[in-house]
Specification:
Helices cover 64% and strands 12% of the residues. The protein has a three-stranded antiparallel β-sheet with strand order 1-3-2. The chain has 141 residues and is of the alpha+beta class. It has a single domain, classed as Arc Repressor Mutant, subunit A (Orthogonal Bundle), CATH 1.10.10. The chain starts with a helix and ends in a 9-residue tail after the last helix.
Length: 141
């Protein structure tokens, strides 16, 4: 019973995020990267993939697409050519702000549907579920 409800809620939430971001011409798969770069400019590609728990080849492909669509720029670190640094372009910055606004609005809606006295418990339960499924908190947010 709980599994079905959790899976159904997860799908509904993902569908809402996809719909809202697509209406603003933003690919939902790039949203986390945009927000992380908004809050952590000039991080390395490895820091990004480690921080978001994304496999390096997956991150590399996504970042290549994001660079080709003028969302980010990748540059070599001046102190170590093996390190690639990431920054948002002006276009990427605009898209990142939009993603953050969409996420904040959805988060507000979720919390509006739950009585305030249960907000902390709701968060604690979500963290317990994530941790027991083998997930960990991304250190980049």
């Amino acid at each position: 019973m709980y599994f079905h409800i959790l899976m159904h809620n997860s799908k509904l939430l993902q569908d809402r995020v996809v719909k809202e971001l697509e209406s603003k011409n933003i690919h939902h798969g790039q949203a986390r990267v945009l927000v992380v770069l908004l809050q952590n400019s000039n991080i390395s590609q490895i820091e990004l993939s480690n921080g978001l728990n994304i496999k390096r080849p997956t991150a590399s492909r996504m970042l290549k697409q994001m660079e080709e669509t003028d969302l980010i720029v990748r540059t070599s670190d001046p102190n170590d050519d093996r390190i690639i640094r990431l920054k948002l372009t002006e276009n990427g910055l605009k898209k990142a702000v939009i993603v953050k606004e969409v996420w904040d609005r959805i988060n507000k809606d979720l919390l509006d549907w739950i009585p305030e006295e249960h907000h902390e418990l709701f968060n604690e339960l979500l963290v317990i579920i994530r941790n027991n499924l083998g997930g960990k908190e991304p250190y980049l947010k």
